[in-house]
Amino acid sequence: MKLASLKQGRDGQLIIVSRDLTHAVHAHHIAPTLQFALDNWPHVEADLAHLYRNLNNDDAPDSFVFNPELCASPLPRAYQWSDGSAYVNHVELVRQARGAAMPESFWTDPLMYQGMSDRFLGPNDDIEAADEAWGIDFEGEIAIVTDDVPMGLRTEEAHDHIRLLMLVNDVSLRNLIPNELAKSFGFFQSKPASSFSPVAVTPDELGEAWHDYKLHHRLHVHLNGQLFGRPDAGTDMTFNFAELLQHIAKTRHVSAGSIIGSGTVSNKDRSQGSCCIAEKRMLEILEQGAAQTDFMHFGDTVRIEMFNEANESIFGAIEQRVVRYQHTYLDEDLNHHAVHPSTKR
After folding, report:
1. Paired residues of 304 in beta bridges
2. CA 261 vs CA 20, 36, 98: distances in Å
3. Distance between CA 8 and CA 114 in Å, rounded?
4. Are 197 and 215 in contact (CB under 8 A)?
């Protein structure tokens, strides 16, 4: 199945999208939201699948043209968003460029952080930032969505707990990261709201491209309309999604609707390009002695998409523009005090 959420309220309105991403149909009579569907999957899966088959057979009379611009992320908010760094060659490259040694444990024990999940950006929503100096970057990734996962899950049990896959733009503010990591307490301000592809798909939709708990298709990333990278997501993935899921469930039960990201997709074959600016800058430092590529400026756009063997978009595209954030309340407050100086404290 292919599922999406129209923008409505905090949790969206669930729709089913045709395999070719051209049409959709409301599913609110089965499940009002995607989170509801995940919470009640054994009871709603068959009805959702039946409606999906009817839609693809042109037998859904209430279908309408699918417009991803009307979509929130499939889960507009989630109980948990945990992002790994499964492509360890990416981590090694970044550390090498700044002269830092790579702990051997990085190859055997996944890196993971817990990110902001109370509000995700829609796939076409602007990326807001108050200052270009923060080092605005995109990160093209793959993510899974889980059902309820018991603590102590083994990798061989992961198959029954991966409900959906999506694409991710894990927005990063690179120049805020060093000071945060220096505190030895992890990311916070440097990791604002992420965005996800318009459509989430069940693993069976991916056919033979989904095996060994990896998605074996290229992830296409364009910056300002120019190809930036197209690495294969199934190549050089040190930790597969079963291993990431086992890692997150080592000490806790995981609730349905939790999202686990792969980290930036990266290949050792550098001719395939990169899925984030930071990686390209690190390559430039190693090869030329200095970074040549700027982080994103206001007005820049990024597009992240994946295609099947027939060159058909699988998830739809994440396509976003970076804009300057204006704090409306602050502006109003400043204007108010300018007009009414007696209100100053």
Report:
1. 221, 318
2. 25, 21, 25
3. 26
4. no
Q: What digits encode the pLDDT tens for the residues 283-294?
A: 999 899 999 999
**C-beta separation of 19 from 53 below 8 A:** no
Residue-by-residue DSSP string for 95-131:
HHHTT----GGGGTS--EEE---S-PBPTT--EEES-
**In whole angstroms, what is the distance from residue 292 CA to residue 56 CA?**
47
Q: How confident is the model at residue 96 (pLDDT cuts 50, 70, 90)?
A: confident
- What distance in Å separates the CA atoms of residue 28 and residue 2, rounded to the nearest whole number? 15
Closest to 320 in 3D by CA, of 167, 122, 165: 122
- Looking at the chain, how many residues does it have? 345
Of the candidates 142, 144, 166, 84, the residue with the CA atom closest to the CA atom of residue 265:
142
> pLDDT of 172-196, one tens digit each?
999 999 899 889 898 999 999 999 9
If we measure between CA atoms, which residue out of 228, 219, 221 comes closest to residue 294?
228
Round to whole Å and give the CA distance between 56 and 60.
Answer: 8
Q: What is the CA radius of gyration of the chain?
A: 21
Angle at 311 between CA 310 and CA 316, to 5 degrees: 120
Two tokens at 298? 């206001």
Say if CB 221 and CB 230 are below 8 A apart: yes
pLDDT band at residue 318 using 50, 70 and 90 as cut-offs = very high
Q: How many CA atoms lie within 13 A of 328 on its CB side?
A: 0
Q: How many CB atoms lie within 10 A of CB 311?
A: 6
Which run of H or of E encompasses 54? helix 41-56
Amino acid identity for residue 42 in this structure = P
Taking the C-alpha atoms of residue 243 and residue 222, their distance in angstroms, rounded to an integer, is: 29
User: Backbone phi, then psi, for 106, in 5-degree steps?
Assistant: -60, -25
